[in-house]
Design goal:
The structure is a single chain. This protein has 25 helices and eleven strands. The protein is globular. The strands form three sheets. Strands 1, 2, 3, 4 and 6 form a five-stranded antiparallel sheet that branches. It has a four-stranded mixed sheet with strand order 5-10-9-7. Strands 8-11 form a two-stranded antiparallel ribbon. It has 552 residues and is α+β, with helices and mostly antiparallel strands. It folds into three domains: 133 residues, no CATH class; 188 residues, no CATH class; 106 residues, no CATH class. Strand 3 and strand 4 form a beta hairpin.
Length: 552
């Protein structure tokens, strides 16, 4: 609800902009301003000029006129290709987050206030003319006392107040959409605004961005493929960030890269590889990889490497989602559509009662058309997007992290194809993912994880007999029941029987492992195979075999 005259005036101005760009459907869907005829009457000339302009372009121009926060909202909205038409998403992706800079002297004062000292004492030089200016912050060049060249990123003054006002207005508009627009249930406008609110307020915290950069740098320490600028922690505060200044050729300047002698096909393949490394090896990926945030180091043109910048949006997945998204990728690579459908159920992304065979058919209808095309035309990001759209029919609830993953994949593939139009993404991605998963889930890493977790399991061992007893009591008294209702009941019975066998193996295996561990722990002074702990080790081995068999 609009509470102040300022909010009313802002809403009226936005209504006038929407009317001028002939976005009447937005006004009608929100009931933002009444009567409509008055708005149309106020801007007849502008409306006539917009008559033949595509809707996506009109929306982009309107958002640019509304101001920097709405520009940023449009950028985030462009990533939700699972919800909005492709032509509108493509136009919104063209929005440039560039706004007029605030005075450099004001930035200087903010740095001094944050760091508690005069700029002259902190830096040997500080350029008050910004290198770049965006809706959240602007960047200034500086030099430290030891001669290191750095960039100083300063959050805009009073930005929190402006953000709060515009986001409250967006929430109000979203509420009107939910109330009056028939498509609101599918798009969920309020959820989109809340997601946007999280992203932009996270970007205000320069300490958070510094931590993102620092962790990415750690992950690629010593790498000759991706360089992350150094963070100067003594100069970082909540509203000020100081990073190493880096130079290179913008990744979308193809002519300059070609003139420098860069091996463009190799660079394109490297971009795909780095995406899979960040996601599946490190589970921490730069989620804002548009061309403005990527430079190319061309000092060795034959082995050119990437330089990343701007770490305000960095994402990771839960261990569960990471496992299931990796398995989904592998299944899609192998065209195993039944496994894709089953993984969606197992992950809890769709309801447990989803008909797997029906979802398999839907996934097949998305996947198979791609394999009839030349491999250098296949986009895995677009395939993932279509899969999300199809899965919505089965009540898929997509988490923001998965959306950021899909958006980043689209960006990386787009850059790869820009560098090398004949890039076979499939040929690069499939072996890369398989190699990473073999490394992560190999015997050595599995044994190391077992060793790390074993003391905790032993600590919980006293509680396990009671839990196992309660589970078995419920099972034997019939309190554990499964209801099956399906047109394909026989098939589901077979699946359920197999599930029960796996469950039994897991319970038995877990019991053997815990019991064996308790025996071993009780005989900590005699751990040889010939000693008293031999029965415990044997029980643990039997349990491990049963647990392993429960996976197949």
């Amino acid at each position: 609800m609009i509470h102040t005259f300022r909010q009313f005036a802002r809403a009226t101005k936005i209504s006038a902009i929407l009317a001028r760009y002939r976005l009447d459907e937005v006004l009608e869907a929100t009931h933002l301003f009444r009567p409509m005829w008055l708005l149309r009457l106020l801007a007849p000339g502008s409306r006539q000029k917009m008559a033949d302009v595509p809707k996506g372009e009109r929306l982009r121009l309107a958002l640019q006129e509304m101001g920097p926060i709405f520009v940023k909202f449009g950028q985030i909205l462009s990533t939700r290709r699972d919800l909005i038409p492709p032509d509108i998403a493509d136009e919104l992706a063209l929005l440039q987050d560039r706004v007029a800079p605030f005075p450099g002297e004001e930035a200087r004062q903010m740095v001094e206030q944050a760091l508690g000292d005069k700029v002259e004492n902190l830096f040997t030089s500080f350029d008050t003319k910004p290198l770049a200016s965006a809706s959240i912050a602007q960047v200034h060049a500086a030099t430290l006392a030891d001669g290191d060249e750095v960039v100083v990123k300063v959050v805009r003054p009073e930005i929190e107040k402006q953000l709060r006002q515009d986001i409250d207005l967006l929430l109000y508009i979203a509420g009107l959409l939910h109330r009056y627009w028939v498509g609101a249930e599918r798009v969920r406008p309020r959820d989109i605004v809340l997601e946007f609110e999280t992203f932009v307020f996270d970007e205000l915290d320069m300490q958070r961005e510094a931590a993102n950069a620092s962790m990415l740098r750690h992950n690629f320490e010593g790498s000759n493929e991706l360089y992350i600028p150094r963070v100067y922690w003594p100069y970082c505060r909540e509203r000020v960030l100081v990073l190493e200044r880096v130079t290179g050729i913008p990744v979308n300047n193809i002519d300059a890269l070609r003139d420098a002698g860069v091996n463009l096909p190799r660079l394109a393949r490297l971009g795909i590889k780095l995406f899979y490394t960040q996601v599946f090896r490190d589970n921490l990926f730069h989620a804002d990889m548009h061309p403005g945030n990527i430079l190319v180091d061309v000092r060795d043109p034959a082995n050119a490497s990437f330089i990343a910048m701007d770490f305000g949006i960095v994402a990771s997945l839960t261990p569960k989602d990471l496992y299931y998204i990796a398995e989904n990728f592998k299944a899609l690579f192998d065209r195993d559509y039944f496994r894709v459908a089953q993984l969606h159920v197992d992950a809890g992304w769709v309801p447990a009662d989803t008909r797997v065979d029906e979802m398999e058919a839907a996934v097949r209808s998305v996947g198979e058309p791609n394999f009839t095309r030349p491999l250098n035309e296949i986009s895995f990001g677009k395939l993932l997007l279509k899969l999300f759209q199809v899965a919505r029919r089965f009540n898929l609830q997509i988490q923001p992290q998965l959306i950021m993953l899909q958006k980043t994949l689209l960006n990386i593939e787009g850059l790869g194809r820009q560098l090398h139009p004949d890039l076979d993404i499939w040929a690069v991605a499939k072996p890369e993912l398989e190699a990473i998963m073999r490394e992560k889930h190999g015997l050595d890493k599995t044994a190391a994880r077992f060793a790390d977790r074993f003391p905790g399991w032993v600590g919980q061992a006293p509680e396990m007999p009671g839990l196992i007893h309660e589970y078995l009591r419920q099972a034997t008294t019939g309190q554990l029941t499964t209801k099956l209702e399906s047109r394909d009941l026989d098939s589901l019975r077979r699946l359920n029987a197999e599930g029960e066998r796996k469950r039994t193996r897991r319970v038995a295996g877990g019991s053997f492992v815990i019991a064996g561990a308790m025996i071993v722990a009780s005989q900590s002074g005699n751990l040889s195979i010939a000693g008293y702990s031999a029965p415990g080790l044997i029980m643990m081995a039997i349990g491990a075999v049963l647990l392993w068999r429960s996976r197949s």
